[in-house]
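Subject: Sanity check before I submit

Could someone independently write out the structure tokens for this chain? I want to compare against mine line by line before I put it in a report. The sequence has 495 residues.
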Amino acid sequence: MTEPLLVARNAATDLFLLPQMANRHGLVTGATGTGKTVTLQTLAEHFSSIGVPCFMSDVKGDLSGVSQPGGGSAKVAERVESLKLEGFAYQGYPVTLWDPFGEAGHPVRATVSDMGPLLLGRMLDLNETQSGVLNLVFKVADDNGLLLLDLKDLRAMLAHVGDNAKEFTTEYGNVSSASIGAIQRGLLALESQGGEQIFGEPMLNIADLIQTDRGRGVINILSADRLMQSPKMYATLLLWLLSELFENLPEAGDLDKPKLVFFFDEAHLLFTDAPAALVEKIEQVVRLIRSKGVGVYFVTQNPADVPDKVLSQLGNRVQHALRAFSPRDQKAVKAAAETMRDNPALDEATVITELGVGEALVSLLDEKGRPGVVERAFIVPPRGQIGPITDAQRKQLMQTSLVAGVYDKPVDRESAYETLKARAEQSAQAAQQAKTAAQTPADSGLGGVLGGILTGGGRRESAAEALAKSAARAIGSQIGRSIIRGVLGSLFGKR
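---
Independent answer below. Compare away.
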């Protein structure tokens, strides 16, 4: 049995997190500046020390210090002395740095197909009708064996479905051109935020988040300071990671310690304005993922940020100070106090507003899975450095990490974009040959060409010509535009 983890201490009590109960999830709450981030670092260090890998997002840019030994902080030294922590020694921990934009860590990529229409619709902020059309586009791609790997694949597919709406409406349902346009505009906005870098290959292998280094769990840190500028992108990417863990890890049952602990910082972003279908999926994942050996710890300002059905599943809790400046704040404080198991010796609602930095109300599960009586205590300080590392240290970590060179270069293999482009070129060539064979001297001159352009030449547009025009709109790259200009020129008898 793995030794319990000392999380907090007061004059009378030591508060331990039991490793076998760590996959019963947890919650770390408190106002800005009360010590949530340091508590997060302390927990990650504890898990790493017993061989449990962790994943956490670095919203403020200061969690990377866990990779270096601490020291030099008078506040930490004072806390160590006041808590009488015998044998306390500063040390760094194994860390892998990640960054969706590939700047402050290794790239994190998902394919469009793997992200799926539900999460992508959330990222694009689509309404119900638009989400339905996006589902339809994914279905058409699946049925036709078209791979959606990156955003240019999705753009090509949207154009293909939009330009052939009548054909697809019969089999798949109504295709709204307005919805197609809204999705395309959403993609433009996503690209302007750098979102195209999130989609593509090589896609993140979830197994790379579950690694150990000389017996200690690797702490995976996602650089999220830039990502947080697009809150829906941030929340959706983390939810995708959580869903990938749920879908790919086998059932594990009750373990002595988790396979992985996943910290979801700024958790309120996950639920703000989320559609009911998405909230239901989150509830399901949180409820079932513990049997896969994964503990999920939500980090946010107030317990009220988390829906009740999710909140009820979070067994290990650390409540830092909350401020109560208004009647609404006071109500929130009272509600927060009621989420923990009552201690007759404490007035929790009053204490929450009086807690100092690094001090918290703590309730942890016992060996039978029952919530412990809430205690007021100081969180044990971290052994790693508090604050960010230097650029040189970051570069060194990336060069020596377990995944160095695996994800750094994107791969662009044949997918929907290339397939649709090739089909358009083949159809255009066939149409040109058919036109050349049917051409008569009367309409082979300049007047015939102009007449065809202005009047349609007395004939209906062929399917090949329609598909070629569709491809021209779908293919957005400079090379694509050059190719299609040549194809269209040949259709009208030009070079």
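---
OP: Matches mine. For the report I'm noting this point. The chain is about 45% helix and 10% strand.
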